[in-house]
């Protein structure tokens, strides 16, 4: 089973370059729709703005669904200060300090892109001294400093910026010679690139999945309501969400393996489907880990909590520094793709 590393990396870079903070995903969803259609899949945009791409299988009476989410963390303009800085609300999770010093883009309602940086109101030790500059980062003192000649709220408004505008952080995507992938928003754009690589693999190798397979690209997972239950075709018997697996103290996940989740903060995952994935990993010599997550949910558990009646699982690449400046290794990506291809070709 040969995975095209170069194709995966180029597709991932493409989607990293398209801003898609939760609530502002339409451009990225339109692009992934085009990419699926070029591979010959049927596509559908849901009323909620998510995408479903369908690959017909040998069995068209029973279906499976594989999900990834396009929405990322980000921010939204909450207020404009008298001196022309922006206060913001976070979109999704992450701590306040996670994006300190990052360059960003403000996207106005009219589609204008304006550059800036995330910086504390009290930043300079030369002015405030070390102790004061070390003050806690929170919604009161974190701001966006615009790279424009602004000195007042009026100046900012004249640029076209207003409350409710979206803010997208630079991803700083880098692939090292040693195979590490570093970027903001690997969660979950790495998974979007994975499903496109899987679809390419089936097309170029003339393969047909055992069951008709729906690739669902959700657009509100970080908000806690990714896959709407009403969007799931009634024939779907199993759902496997692809999401990042946190690597760190107390976790089993690895940057080099596929992680199969046993439980997250919302629920235990379906035991039978989990065991099926483990058996496939072992049968095909795929490096895998099993993990339990503390502060985490996926498209699968969100669908279950809406009342979806199906078996559900979650797999993903081990990622260090989740919801911060994230890192994984290409071998983890490959192990994920291999497991999902094995799953799609099994009964």
Written overview of the protein:
By secondary structure, this protein is α/β, with parallel strands linked by helices. The chain folds into two domains: 5-72 and 185-344, 3-Layer(aba) Sandwich (Aminopeptidase); 74-169, Beta Barrel (Elongation Factor Tu (Ef-tu), domain 3), CATH 2.40.30.40. It contains eight helices and 18 strands. Strands 1, 2, 3, 12, 13, 14, 15, 16 and 17 form a nine-stranded mixed sheet that branches. Helix 5 crosses helix 8. It is globular, with a radius of gyration of 21 Å. The two termini are 18 Å apart. The relative contact order is 0.19.
Summarize the structure.
The chain is an alpha/beta fold and 347 residues long.
Secondary-structure map:
Blueprint: H1 5-16, H2 26-38, E1 42-45, E2 51-55, E3 59-69, E4 74-80, E5 86-91, E6 103-107, E7 113-120, H3 125-133, E8 142-146, H4 153-159, E9 166-169, E10 174-175, E11 180-183, H5 186-204, E12 211-218, E13 236-242, E14 245-247, E15 258-263, H6 271-283, E16 288-292, H7 299-305, E17 311-320, E18 326-329, H8 330-344
Parallel strand pairs: 3-12, 3-13, 13-17, 14-17, 15-16
Antiparallel strand pairs: 1-2, 2-12, 4-5, 4-9, 6-7, 6-9, 7-8, 10-11, 11-18, 15-17
Helix pairs in contact: 1-5, 5-8
Morphology call: globular
Give the CATH architecture of the largest domain: 3-Layer(aba) Sandwich
CATH domain topology of the largest domain? Aminopeptidase
Number of helices: 8
Name the CATH superfamily assignment of the largest domain: Zn peptidases
β-strand percent reads 25-35%
Mean of residue pLDDT values: 96
Structural class: alpha/beta
Q: Percentage of helical residues?
A: 25-40%
The H-and-E topology, N to C, reads as HHEEEEEEEHEHEEEHEEEEHEHEEH
Question: Which spans of ≥5 residues are poorly predicted at pLDDT below 50?
Answer: none
Number of strands: 18
Largest sheet: 9 strands, mixed
């Amino acid at each position: 089973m040969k995975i095209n590393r170069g194709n995966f990396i180029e597709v991932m870079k493409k989607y990293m370059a398209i801003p898609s903070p939760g609530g502002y995903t339409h451009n990225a969803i339109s692009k992934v729709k085009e990419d699926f259609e070029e591979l010959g899949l049927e596509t559908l945009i849901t009323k909620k703005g998510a995408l479903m791409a369908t690959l017909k299988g040998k069995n068209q009476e029973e279906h499976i669904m594989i999900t990834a989410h396009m929405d990322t963390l980000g921010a939204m303009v909450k207020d404009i200060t008298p001196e022309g800085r922006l206060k913001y609300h976070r979109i999704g999770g992450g701590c306040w300090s996670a994006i300190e010093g990052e360059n960003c883009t403000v996207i106005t309602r009219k589609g204008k892109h304006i550059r800036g940086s995330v910086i504390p109101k009290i930043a300079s030790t030369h002015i405030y001294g070390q102790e004061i500059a070390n003050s806690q980062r929170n919604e009161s003192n974190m701001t966006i400093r615009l790279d424009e000649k602004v000195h007042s709220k009026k100046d900012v408004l004249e640029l076209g910026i207003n409350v409710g505008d979206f803010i997208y952080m630079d991803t700083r995507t880098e692939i090292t010679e040693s195979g590490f992938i570093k970027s903001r928003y690997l969660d979950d754009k790495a998974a979007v690139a994975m499903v496109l690589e899987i679809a390419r693999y089936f097309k170029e190798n003339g393969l047909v999945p055992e069951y008709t397979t729906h690739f669902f690209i959700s657009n509100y997972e970080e908000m806690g309501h990714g896959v709407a239950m009403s969007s799931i075709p009634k024939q779907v018997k199993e759902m496997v969400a692809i999401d990042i697996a946190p690597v760190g103290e107390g976790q089993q996940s690895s940057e080099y393996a596929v992680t199969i989740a046993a439980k997250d903060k919302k629920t235990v995952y379906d035991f039978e489907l989990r065991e099926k994935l483990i058996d496939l990993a072992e049968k095909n010599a795929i490096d895998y880990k099993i993990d339990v997550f503390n502060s985490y949910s996926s498209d699968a558990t969100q669908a279950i909590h809406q009342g979806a009646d199906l078996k559900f699982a979650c797999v993903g690449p081990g990622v260090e520094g989740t919801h911060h400046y994230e890192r994984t290794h290409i071998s983890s990506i490959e192990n994920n793709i291999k497991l999902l291809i094995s799953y799609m070709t099994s009964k």
